[in-house]
Amino acid sequence: MNDDKKFAYGYMRVFSDVTGQEAYEVERSLRRYAEANDLHLGGIYHEFVSGSLDAFNEMVDVLRCTGAGTVILPSLGHLSENGALRRALLDRLEFSFSTEVHTLDEHRGLASDQLRAWDRLTLVALPTAVGCARAFTKVMLGWWRAPHILDEALLVTSELVTNAVQATEAKHIIGVQLQIIDDSVLVEVWDDSPALPMLKEPSTNAEIGRGLCLVEGFAKRWGTCGAPAGGKIVWAELTLSPQPEPFTGSAPLPHRVPGSLRVPDGPAKERVETALMQRVLEGWGNL
After folding, report:
1. Tens digits of per-residue pLDDT, 202-227?
2. Most exposed: 84, 144, 178, 276, by fewest CB within 10 Å?
């Protein structure tokens, strides 16, 4: 093997109507493409279940650990047949992991609203979640090369997470999600209380109650929405200028969450992630 070759991984969906021979031919095409472009193909990840992302997430973990710089797809449709989700997955690879995505058909066809990056964090609803959410925001905006918006983003994150912790019962769960779409940063916080927050003018000497007033002062716009999975999401949009360029180094390690704030895998965590992922799928137009 040529040690100078760059590592690459293949990813493909094996649709229900695809025969074994057809799947084998697609695999051969991926391998031939890698050879023709002087790439060492470390493996091909197969997604067999419609709508599943298990193999995709497994590949992402390998990309994070190995720093492999290329993913080869038969077409973008193998990421997802849903345009918004396809765009989100593609941007996760290209922006968050600085991965070059090659397709055999070289057809992109992305929508005009460019989702440049996104990530999320689930936490137990304790007061210490505020500091953890701030650390998460600082790491991600640094990785996304957007430090000029950091102070405003940290303040907005602090206030929205504080409100979410106060709105829910202790030991329940909250979710924090960051998105960069076009020239904006979107901070979103989910909690399981259906009660919508009210913007109140605090008294001059008040030490509490200023949260949403501060958010309104720093954000381009903000709002609330119910989540199909239950609960609500409070969001704030911050103007990002200039737009960041993709980072070319290694991707950051997964965010470390203290044991007291760590949410175990299970239905409760899936509910939060479903609510936040729906926001990614809906896109900018439904704010």
Report:
1. 554 444 446 788 888 888 889 888 88
2. 84
Q: What is the pairing mode between strands 39-47 and 70-73?
A: unpaired
Residue for token digits 């809906």?
282
d(CA 133, CA 86): 27
Half-sphere exposure (Cβ direction) of 26: Cα atoms closer than 13 Å: 22
Nearest to 48 by CA among 9, 12, 25, 14: 14
CATH H-level superfamily of 6-103: Resolvase, N-terminal catalytic domain (3.40.50.1390)
pLDDT one-digit tens code per residue, 234-260? 999 998 876 666 554 445 555 678 788
CATH 3.30.565.10 fits 115-286, yes or no: yes
Q: What residue spans define the domains of the chain?
A: 6-103, 115-286
Q: Over the stretch 163-194, which tens digit does the pLDDT of each residue have?
A: 999 988 766 899 999 988 778 899 999 999 88
